[in-house]
């Protein structure tokens, strides 16, 4: 047996994330005692109509979220208990809503910082209705082997260590959440464990106090003794003492009170929970409470440390008198399934990875590129081209190579608004499309006819050089197998109107006195092709391709240099249009050659 | 409970129709002189000047001056403002008119478990304290409003007669309205006096304690709450409070000068048991501290730095019960960072650290604490198998 929370307790949780976290803890307990999850529903208007996923064992249970308590209890008529996790400013409304629901008999409020007047109103309303209002600031209620309400009891390992999977003989009532767990643990180590433990909250006027719960414990035959953990301030402990001393009680009462330090503190200095405030004229002091409990016949250990031995003595007496028997521990207890991560850490499972990466790792406190921490690269003077080298070719390139890449990027960052990529981005920007989509629209244009010839140019020049072909052999090979040579030819530039970018890049690379077999070959090719037709010059794609192959970049990465550089320009165009608040563009009719058939009559449908 | 100084306290009473003497709160003698030109009552009435700070025994400290004219009040303000009393500097002075009167009465409203209680006595001042049996009470359940008849009966029971009975009942009713509407936890007027000029009951001196948790529904509470223990908060205390107001969970810190045992325990309940254990062992607390509700690690780190900065400490008690949901590894991570920082700043020399804790990820947290030994910390770490306050016994064992 137990009080307040038992195997028939069905719960609605009012609140958001904190409530979901509590439900997870409750599910762990249900799993431990091999019972279905006792949370039936959530009430949280912002998420109404959705479900919250609560892990149970190795599975997930979907618990519906409702807008009101009434909706929840209408759909789940077995609900008889509500846990309130709503913010302090709305807690009273939520608590009243639960109390007023005919299905609900117990409301436990976890919310902290609830105004005193609100807490009193909730308590008074519950008493009027003959219901229980527990809290505010309650850590929860737990009945061993039967029911957990809230996070009381802590982590799964602690539930097991504190033997909460089966009933003991001790009831526990505390104001403090942390100490509730401590006492549950002590009862499991020095005695046979608990029946029910209740956190009543540390506020000055808890909705339900020691006396009401002592009365319930008195009527629970399984509970043989009750431990109360009090603190200075208010008169709750005095009232408990008064109740205990009023007549012969079946249960034994063990009590400790904190706040003796107050006697030696500077006057007026107070601390602890909100309720831990000494009244005028010494009333509510730790000493007066402790004396009252002693006088009423309760066992009052002198310090918190002496509580364990006192509980042990009580338990031994109960054993001797035959009132309790040594508990039988279950042979096997369910183990909480480990997450894959935990199991891997413990070397218990092997997982076949889904993807494999060889370039970067962000699991530490900063990203590493091919093993080098980003901050170290920065601090040692490396620059963007080196990062490109690491991520695209897994090597730290030289200063000279980095300079070449930098120049290639600067030369191809943009080429005005008229080229396909920029035009597409501008068109999208003017249609009100966002940055990433507009830039993507521009990037989509990069292909065989616009900017996308770098990789192919590099591939064929490299092939020719590797095969030691002559220019004539190469041109014949291309004509026969592939068609026009990628990287050769320009729409507007020609021998007489040369592309300054090509001149600039070739000039720089040539000045470095490095071996450039591909570039040399490409320039030889140009001599032949340009002689045939004025505009069949080595274009910027071809030049880039040859140079990048010469400094060792893999052929497959070459288009990347154009894409990356041009993205700078595309972003610029989008921002530029945005800044001008440009209007939607529509083609003018005079820019279209309407070559479709003239208007004609539609024949009857056959 | 949140204490409110007289100025804003009287403001709240006035708002609910309780007569209070004319008063002004000033931050300089010049300001007072200027106000004196604009307000007739300051030129015609006798005045009282008081330091408007959370200070006990102001009379003894010479921070209350009575029977002044305007010039006298300006001189008193000049003398008081800027005076240093312990850690408090007087920055404000409240000047109010003296109300000539013969009889003094008492009225208070206090919070009770069921609701509230209205207290009335037909004696006031220091007389009521020695005649506490003359105080009559009217108990009210939460949500209940006292009827004019009940209030009049209360006044009658307290010994008021004639026209005064109704007046006192009415006064007590207004006190209750103020208490109820302002989320007060304690309102006391002592003395209540009859103003000779118009025969009205006037509140001469007020104690106002409000429910700080209800601040969200009182946008007009534009005043700050006063420290409750007769001194101003220190810089470190204010810093921890500022952190506390920003985070989920809580961190608390109060300095106790002259102590040698520093406290860094977890939990509002356990922290007091740890303090008790220190006192029971004959130790001297250097502070009170507490962190709970799974606060972020950086907040615990700030708290740790403040604890490590306490002068003359010999032991630090990093105690705690078995947590429900506070992540031990994470919060200990904050404490460890704080310790490291303190050590690199040359603090913690010869200081012994004592740790006891349980809860989510307790093993990882305790292991991390144990590892501090290798960094040269004098640290002793215990787990849940060591009873809660035994580390205090070990620390203070001579």
How do the helices and strands line up, and which of them pair or pack?
The complex is a heterodimer of chains A (about 600) and B (about 400).
Chain A: E1 11-14, H1 17-32, E2 39-43, E3 51-56, E4 59-66, H2 69-75, E5 81-84, H3 91-99, E6 106-109, H4 116-129, E7 132-134, E8 140-143, E9 147-150, H5 156-161, E10 170-174, H6 177-190, E11 194-199, H7 210-218, E12 225-231, H8 236-246, E13 252-258, H9 286-295, H10 307-320, H11 340-345, E14 360-361, E15 368-369, E16 372-373, H12 374-379, H13 384-393, H14 399-412, H15 420-430, H16 435-444, H17 454-466, H18 471-481, H19 500-511, H20 517-532, H21 540-550, H22 558-580
Parallel strand pairs in A: 1-2, 1-5, 2-4, 5-6, 6-7, 10-11, 10-12, 12-13
Antiparallel strand pairs in A: 3-4, 8-9, 8-11, 14-15, 15-16
Chain B: E1 2-4, H1 6-15, E2 23-26, H2 29-38, H3 40-44, E3 47-51, E4 64-68, H4 70-80, E5 84-85, E6 88-89, E7 93-97, E8 104-111, E9 115-121, H5 126-130, E10 136-141, H6 148-157, H7 163-181, E11 184-194, E12 201-203, E13 206-210, H8 235-246, E14 250-255, E15 261-263, H9 270-280, E16 287-292, H10 297-308, E17 315-318, H11 328-344, E18 352-356, H12 362-370, E19 379-382, H13 390-396
Parallel strand pairs in B: 15-17, 17-18, 18-19
Antiparallel strand pairs in B: 1-13, 2-7, 3-4, 3-7, 5-6, 8-9, 8-11, 9-10, 11-12, 11-13, 14-16
Helix pairs in contact in B: 2-4, 6-7, 8-10, 10-11, 11-12
Protein architecture, described:
Chain A starts with 10 loop residues before the first strand and ends in a 26-residue tail after the last helix. Chain A folds into two domains: 11-320, 3-Layer(aba) Sandwich (Rossmann fold); 420-580, no CATH class. Chain A has helices at residues 17-32, 69-75, 91-99, 116-129, 156-161, 177-190, 210-218, 236-246, 286-295, 307-320, 340-345, 374-379, 384-393, 399-412, 420-430, 435-444, 454-466, 471-481, 500-511, 517-532, 540-550, 558-580; strands at residues 11-14, 39-43, 51-56, 59-66, 81-84, 106-109, 132-134, 140-143, 147-150, 170-174, 194-199, 225-231, 252-258, 360-361, 368-369, 372-373. By secondary structure, chain A is of the alpha/beta class. With 398 residues, chain B is an alpha+beta fold. Chain B has three domains: 22-97, ATP-grasp fold, A domain (Dna Ligase, domain 1); 104-217, 2-Layer Sandwich (D-amino Acid Aminotransferase, Chain A, domain 1); 235-396, 3-Layer(aba) Sandwich (Rossmann fold). Chain B is 35% helix and 24% strand. Chain B contains 13 helices and 19 strands. In chain B, strands 1, 8, 9, 10, 11, 12 and 13 form a seven-stranded antiparallel sheet that branches. In chain B, a hairpin with a 6-residue loop joins strand 11 and strand 12 (201-203). In chain B, helix 6 crosses helix 7, helix 8 (235-246) runs antiparallel to helix 10 and helix 11 runs parallel beside helix 12. The longest helix of chain B has 19 residues, at 163-181. Chains A and B meet through helix 4 and helix 6 of A and helix 9 and strand 16 of B.
